[in-house]
Automatic annotation (TrEMBL):
Transmembrane regions listed in the UniProt entry: 20-44, 50-72, 133-153, 159-180, 245-265
Membrane topology note: Multi-pass membrane protein
Keyword Heme in annotation: no
Signal peptide annotation: none
Gene3D superfamilies for the chain: ABC transporter type 1, transmembrane domain (1.20.1560.10), P-loop containing nucleotide triphosphate hydrolases (3.40.50.300)
InterPro entries: AAA+_ATPase, ABC1_TM_dom, ABC1_TM_sf, ABC_CydC/D, ABC_transporter-like_ATP-bd, ABC_transporter-like_CS, P-loop_NTPase, Type_1_exporter
This protein's name: Thiol reductant ABC exporter subunit CydC
The keyword Protein biosynthesis is annotated on this UniProt entry: no
Length: 571
């Protein structure tokens, strides 16, 4: 039950449509049985040439039942499908609400293709739960029960035969089929996730794969994963076809038994001959919808596997109470790190250990150190994207975990190492940072980062593939000039630029951030002379802090050694 708790909760929200669809399903089923039963009785009675009014009543009853059956079937389809689509919508919203706050951590644990397979394929699979798992046995059981009570009035023996068939169809067969289906359902979901991940790697890495002549090998792996998935899907379809054939054969077998049994009763004088056709038609019709029970185990196991794959994404993550504290928009941010240690999931050692420093309004801070020293992780922690194991990050004397994320992000201007660009115009990509920005403000921003040769109508392809590395960095920085923020967080903002362009753009940033704090992460040590504070990191630890002159004044300082090494390489 726990495995399908997600879809059950969503079903409870749509209990009105579910109850109405079950009612119409029962009405459609019982009128169909009644229609065929009445038709069989009409044929039998007509053979004895009864009074015309008797036939007229029977014919009118058959017509009324036919109309009622058609209307009921329409109502069943309408309300059951409306409920299903609403349930599916609610599941999508639930999945988004659960995953969105944890996106940064989840993407560190799962491949993007696997996540895509879960939020698309597994969510789609759950639409079958109500229509294929919950609904059929409920409707069949109610129709069977009502039919049994009516049939017992005519013949107890025939009623017991139908009960036996009902038990086999509703309980025995589904249980047996479930045991077979359970072996393949989980593997099917995993194979689909693996296929999606391989395809994503092949699609986004095609250029690099081609350059290094590895595209053919990746394509063979993709073909192999696709072939395995198709084989498992074909095997599953064969199983379902066999199971459906077994149920259909058994249903006709029960009808034949009822016909033989009723014939014996008629020959023995224990049953009126006019009821023979009626009982046979009842037996055929009451089992008419039983093929749906053949596919029920497959959809049940598929729903359980899909629901489990979805919920495990967020259930394994620690849940954090929604932060209620809103930062005052006009108050500059003062950030304090106190002995902060950060360790990513599945990593053996922490990315940052016992980091302590402050970010004060109006100060320029540089975080430097070799690659992998933990510089970017500090920025991720300020954005609440990195998991803090110990220590405290205080923002205006408040724990960062108690501050509403949206309130925090509104006061931060961020340029990451890899910034995302959307398919559209330069103008649309700039206004992504500020929807109120006009064309003139966007042109000024482009001028500040030396992209004035771009027009606002120029197109940006998906992920900015038509832009150079330097153009991407400058376009990302141009966004920041369009919005007010208390802190600018810049992760290698000019690593792809030449020294002259870098100096001019950093000068523009300095002019725009006279009263704001600027935290710059960089490898190059040029242009740090005017920094208010330089934080030096190595192997996840802050090993030095101070101004440029203070660090250069240390005889055996790590920063001084790095600077001298850089200068020697530039000579």
């Amino acid at each position: 039950m726990k495995d399908i708790s997600l879809v059950l909760k969503m079903m409870l929200k749509e209990k009105k449509d579910i109850l109405i669809s079950v009612f119409f399903g029962f009405l459609a089923g019982i009128t169909a049985v009644s229609l065929f039963a009445a038709s069989g009785y009409l044929i039998s009675q007509a053979a004895f040439a009864p009074p015309i009014y008797t036939l007229m009543i029977l014919v009118a009853s058959v017509k009324l039942l036919g109309i009622t059956s058609a209307v009921s079937r329409y109502g069943e389809r309408y309300f059951s499908h409306r409920g299903t689509f609403t349930i599916l919508k609610n599941i999508r919203l639930k999945v988004y609400d659960q995953i969105e706050p944890l996106a940064s951590r989840i993407l560190q644990k799962y491949r993007s293709g696997d996540i895509l397979a879960r939020i698309v394929g597994d969510v789609e699979s759950l639409q079958h739960f109500f229509l294929r798992v919950f609904y059929p046995p409920v409707v069949l059981a109610t129709v069977f029960t009502a039919t049994i009570f009516f049939t017992m009035y005519l013949s107890v023996g025939v009623a017991l035969t139908i009960v036996a068939g009902m038990v086999v169809v509703l309980i025995v067969f589904p249980s047996i089929f479930y045991l077979f289906q359970k072996r393949t359902a989980v593997s099917m979901r995993e194979k689909r996730g693996a296929l999606s991940s391989t395809f994503t790697d092949y699609l986004y890495g095609f250029r690099e794969l081609t350059i290094f002549q590895q595209a053919e090998g990746k394509k063979q792996q993709l073909d192999h994963d696709m072939h395995q998935y198709e084989e498992m899907k074909a095997k599953e379809n064969r199983q379902l076809a066999i199971q459906e054939a077994v149920v259909i054969f058994f249903s006709f077998f029960i009808a034949v038994i009822v016909l033989v049994q009723a014939g014996l009763y008629v020959s023995e004088g224990n049953l009126a001959g006019t009821l023979l056709a009626m009982l046979f038609m009842i037996a055929i019709t009451v089992f008419e919808d039983t093929p749906s029970m053949a596919v029920l185990p497959a959809h049940l196991e598929e729903s359980k596997a899909s629901s489990k794959r979805l919920t495990e994404v967020w259930e394994e993550e620690p849940r954090v109470e929604a932060a209620a504290h809103e930062l005052e928009p006009d108050v500059p941010l003062h950030v304090v790190f106190k002995d902060v240690s950060i360790q990513y999931p599945n990593e053996k050692k922490p990315a940052v250990r016992l980091a302590s420093f402050q970010i004060k309004p109006g100060k320029n801070i540089a975080i430097v150190g070799p690659s992998g020293s933990g510089k970017s992780t500090l920025m991720q922690a300020m954005l609440t994207f990195a998991p803090i194991q110990s220590g405290h990050i205080l923002v205006n004397d408040k724990e960062i975990s108690k501050i509403a994320q949206e309130s925090l992000w509104r006061q931060m201007n961020v340029s990451l190492q890899h910034n995302h660009f959307f398919y559209g115009s330069i103008y649309e990509n700039l206004r992504f940072a500020n929807k109120e920005a006009g064309e003139e403000a966007c042109r000024e921003a482009l001028e500040k980062v030396q992209l004035s040769h771009f027009s606002l109508e120029d197109q940006v392809l998906e992920k900015g593939t038509n832009l150079s590395g330097g153009e991407k960095q400058r376009l990302a920085l141009a966004r920041l000039f369009l919005r007010d923020a208390s802190i600018w967080l810049l992760d290698e903002p000019t690593s792809s630029l030449d020294a002259i362009t870098e100096q001019e753009i950093m000068g523009q940033i300095e002019k725009a951030t006279k009263y704001q704090a600027v935290v710059t992460i960089r490898h190059r040590l040029t242009g740090l002379e005017n920094m208010d504070q330089i934080i030096v990191m190595n192997h996840g630890e802050i090993i030095e802090q101070g101004t440029y002159m203070e660090l250069m004044g240390k005889a055996d300082g790590y920063f001084k050694a790095m600077k001298e090494l850089e200068n020697s390489q530039l000579v």
